[in-house]
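Reader question, answered in our methods column.
A reader sent in the components of a multi-part assembly and asked whether the whole thing could be modeled at once rather than chain by chain. We filled in our standard form and ran it. Here is what they sent:
COMPLEX SIZE: three components
ENTRIES:
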Amino acid sequence: MKILNELLELKGVSGDESATTQFLYKYVEKQKKIWNVLPKIFFGEDFHDCLLLKFGNPRTAVFAHIDTIGFMSRYDNQLIPVGGPEIIPGTWLVGEDSLGAIRCRLQGDEEGIFHDFPRGIEPGTCLSFEQNIRIGSEFIEGAYLDNRLGVYNALKLCETLENGWVVFSTYEEHGGGSMPFLLKFIQENSPIKQALISDITWVTEGVKHHEGVAISIRDKFIPRRKFLDKIISIAKKSQVQFQLEVENYGGSDGREIQNSPYAIDWCFIGAPEDHVHSPNEKVSLADLNSMIELYKILMEKL
Amino acid sequence: MKILNELLELKGVSGDESATTQFLYKYVEKQKKIWNVLPKIFFGEDFHDCLLLKFGNPRTAVFAHIDTIGFMSRYDNQLIPVGGPEIIPGTWLVGEDSLGAIRCRLQGDEEGIFHDFPRGIEPGTCLSFEQNIRIGSEFIEGAYLDNRLGVYNALKLCETLENGWVVFSTYEEHGGGSMPFLLKFIQENSPIKQALISDITWVTEGVKHHEGVAISIRDKFIPRRKFLDKIISIAKKSQVQFQLEVENYGGSDGREIQNSPYAIDWCFIGAPEDHVHSPNEKVSLADLNSMIELYKILMEKL
Amino acid sequence: MKILNELLELKGVSGDESATTQFLYKYVEKQKKIWNVLPKIFFGEDFHDCLLLKFGNPRTAVFAHIDTIGFMSRYDNQLIPVGGPEIIPGTWLVGEDSLGAIRCRLQGDEEGIFHDFPRGIEPGTCLSFEQNIRIGSEFIEGAYLDNRLGVYNALKLCETLENGWVVFSTYEEHGGGSMPFLLKFIQENSPIKQALISDITWVTEGVKHHEGVAISIRDKFIPRRKFLDKIISIAKKSQVQFQLEVENYGGSDGREIQNSPYAIDWCFIGAPEDHVHSPNEKVSLADLNSMIELYKILMEKL
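And here is the structure of the entire assembly that came back:
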């Protein structure tokens, strides 16, 4: 899990993902030689800070967003959120502006967020949760499991994938915006009719640690019933532990597939986490493993 | 009105419209022989659960959404809404899961909705209002007049339509998502510059039963003034009774035309109903008739 | 500044922009002869009420919305907002319906807006703030500086522009809807990778009168960091006074570029105003001048 640790140490608040993409690109270039199938790689300014890998003849695409929630400095010592981070006073934040490295503590609440850095921070500077990874026998804990685990799952999938797109998207935590051009590129080059969203969901009263990867029947948006039935049927026949999620809120890259000008079915499938969007996100290692196993099977059978 | 009764008996909560589309497809296949013009039919997995009919050389498209609001079972005995149904305790709901047919009563309120079915319902199961159609001399009452009447209007139009698209869309009640690919298909095959939304609106202080079909000058979204003027001018010259609607809220498939990458004018035109999104929606039969008459004229003159 | 005065006198509430576009078209037809480069003009029903000018070989597009906020008459003496106008009782409103010219005062508050016109106003009639332009030595004040100043900036740019699109969009104040088809047309005819939003922003605790044009690092949406860095770097090297804006709220035509199916970078750059969306919007003439200067430089260097 060396790569997972490296992914978790990367900073990449929505809008500022270029370093993360550079890292992924280098990793893919190095690792692709030992993967079962050599993917075609799409990368560079035409794709902004996204990265696409095409394996064989795709029927299905997997999307994993690489951006994270965080904060941006405003004027004086004010901060404003990027995406929907938990506002917990005392949380350590890190970043960098032209004057150098920044490490400071978050203060305030939803009404007004501030930092306690002794000097001013240049307006528009991104700050992330300071990382503190803890891996035990049952759980992984730290910041940004959402969605570094989804990215990790996608990279594990690459090792054996024969046919399919693996796509690393940006801006998911803050209103989206890369999915529309990614989908256009995919549909005009090697079109697909099915998509899986490799992302992390919430532990709730109905979705629990250690009960397997969650197949989401709905969040704020509702995938097509026919496609859900197909996925659940494959999952049932597999030996992989899974649970069904039914939520009224939340969204993912799936929203932009739903609203795209292509008839592409989509489903969110991911391990659940506790302490969402905090520095202490917590995921069951068994659930992460189920996620990895189920993606392998689905990408073959769908 | 046999077909209207059959339409009203169909279940088809947003996301689960495939049975409704199958019914419509069979109806169209049977009826098209007696229509004035034989349409070209687009149907099947490439169109998800939508259905498109192309008559002659279209200048204008009519869109009628086939999905309905409803509920979905969550965990324990919880329900969550699909679209925006009225939450009226005691309302009878019906559906089906793998254990068999379901008939139960809604309990709770906007804060938390529950069912009283003796056994658990599988998570993700769709429930609809139990249907109770009442047709009198002046009114039709029942669940899902929105938008079975809009579908009925579109089917009546098919009988004599010479040029135009008639399109049955999905997901309208829950955030949309089929309109973008339907519009792309239309524009790439037989493009149009005008669209009418065949849907049901609200009785308000300014829009009343028995005063004719409503031409909507705006809801949350605003059609282009030039197109509205053209429609109102045609309506005035006709003998059909109509009224003008000006609302601040609400939306329709028109929203997705407005936001589409095509310069297509749109307007919502439909009979008004009382008791919106309840099991007792109520529409004036005279207004429904005005709706049918006005669509015939507009599709010829526009 | 004769043209600016003429622009400010035009009415053009979102949805009803055709007179404004006609005016712009005539102005462009007349003025283009004295511009450095003769643009290709795209205008007419295929573009609804928008207007596009293509100069040379564009790398970047400038978008200026021509619509304004305002009000629409509903039933009885009710008004509903178009966009987000300030509701200030006693404000003079003007418009016209089939019975003639209208001049009346706004009454009520956010809960309910009314007019005091002696006769009824036809439902669906657009009303605008009565114009009262005041130009002093330091400031310009009046209604609709947002976005007549952005349009003025775009027209000034046309005088010397060698390569670039200058685009006049509609509906920006009320949910958008023209940007998607404008972007599609641009990308399919003479594609660009960069866009500047020529619009007016807010005076806040961090953005002040007389401190230069504002380069917006974010509003509700976040442009890509890489593009911001490029713009700020060019601005720093120029002699033009500018300030950086970091806001949590607000949007512009940039939102629709962000969500478009094209990988186009965008940034909002505009002078700040006080008394936003009121009849007394106020902009520093020096800031307006900085805006005009910075656009010239950016369109050359980007």
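What stands out: The two ends of chain B are 28 Å apart (CA to CA). Helices of chain B lie at 2-9, 18-31, 145-158, 179-189, 225-237, 253-258, 285-301.
Send us your own complexes using the same form.
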